[in-house]
Amino acid sequence: MSGIDQRRKLVDGLTEESFLSGFGNEHSSESVAGALPHGRNSPQRAPLGLYAEQLSGTAFTEPRAHNRRSWLYRIRPSAAHPAYVRTDNGRLRTAPFTETAPDPNRLRWNPLPDPAPGTDWLAGLWTLGGNGDVTQRTGMAVHLYHANASMERVFSDADGELLIVPERGGLLLVTEFGLLPARPGEIALVPRGVRFRVELLDESARGYVCENYGQPFQLPDLGLIGANGLANARDFLAPAAAYEDVEGPVEVVNKFCGNLWTATYDHSPLDVVAWHGNHVPYVYDLHRFNVIGSISYDHPDPSIFTVLTSPSDTPGLAGVDFVVFAPRWLVGEDTFRPPYFHRNVMSEYMGLIEGAYDAKAAGEGGFVPGGGSLHNMMSAHGPDRETFDRASSVELTPQKVDNGLAFMFETRWPVIATGQAAKADHLQKGYDSVWQGLERHFRPQ
Ligand code: FE2
Hints:
By secondary structure, the chain is mostly beta strands. 5% of the residues lie in helices and 35% in strands. The protein binds fe (ii) ion.
C-alpha cells in the first residue's frame, strides 16, 4: 500500500468520537493509560517516566477568558535539541512587508502554478503579502501553498498561529497533540509554537494560510444573536493524543521572526504521550457554519459571516477576521441581494474553495478556486456588471445560494504585496475591467 493509501485508511477509520470537541475547552487526552497526572501539572516524577512541559500561547497573566496554555507529557523535553542554524526562507516572507509600495489597486491572482516534483507543504508555501510587525506580534500574512510531497521534516512557527484553508487535496496534520485530518471545506488551526508535519492524503494539495501574528483566533461574541449560531463551539475538534517514538535524525524547522532555522534532532519531537490544556490545534467543517442573514430586506454586513476573530486592543476592531460565504438562502424583499458596492476601512483578501462566488462571474480569468483577490483599505469594489444587471432585475423569489464556498481574511491594516506577488505571472492583468460597462442610469429631466 502506498503512503497515501495507508494514510487514507487511517483517516477513514476516524470518527467524530475520535476527537475532542469544543472550542477553547480544557481538553485532556492520553494515548497510554496512566500517562496523564491527575491533581497536579508537574509532579516530582511525571507518570511513566515522561517529562512534563508547559507550552504557553498567551502571557502567564492574561485574563482567564483569554489564557491559552497546555501541559505536555513527552518522551523527551523540547529543550533537548542542538543549536538551530539559518536555512533558506524559500518563498516565505514576513512582516513588516517592505518589498513593494502599498497598492490602492484592486488585485486578483490565478491559482499558484504547479510545484516542482518533491515539493512538500513547507517548501510549497508562497507569501502573497500581509501587514503589521512580527516582532510586535501584530498583523498577519496571507500565504498560499501548492505541494506534491509529504513532509518528512517537522515545522513550528514561533511567529504566529496558522489557519490553514485547504482548497484541493486532503492534509493529515501530524502534530504534537495528535493526528488531525483537514480536507477541502474544512479549516485547520495550528497554534503558535506547536510542532507538526503535513502529510498528503492526495497526490497534491493546494490551499491558503492566514498566519496570524496577533491575538489567537477566538469565536466572535454573538450579542443579540443569542447563545447559539454562526460557528458553534462544539463543532471544533481537537486531536486525541498520539505520539511517535522515533530515534534517529529528524529535521526540525523553526520559523522565528521571519526567518527559517533548522536543526537535526536525534529523535522525533512529536513524542507527546499525553496532554491537557486549551492551546491546541483544531479542525472545523465550514459546512457546519450556521449562516444568519436577513429575513426581511437588505444584505447584512458580511461581519455576520465571521467564523473566527483575532481581536485587537480596540473593542470591535479585529486584527484579522476569518469570514466564510457558505451556502444559504436569500429571501430579502426589494433588495439587491449580492454583496453591495462598498469601500471599507478594513482590507479584504478573498479566496475561493469551491464553485463560484455570488458577486463575480466564474470561469477562466475570473475568480476561480485556488485564486484570490485583494481589495485594500478604501478601494472600491462590489459586483461585476453582469451580476449587477441580473440582480437588479431578477424576480425576487427565495433563492438558495449553494454553488460555492468562498472566504475572506479581513484585516485592520492594508495587505502589502510581496515582490513575488506583485510580479507574479499568475497576477491577472486588467482586473479593473470587471467594473467596466456599468452604465449610467441617472437621467434627470
Ligand atoms: Fe468587500
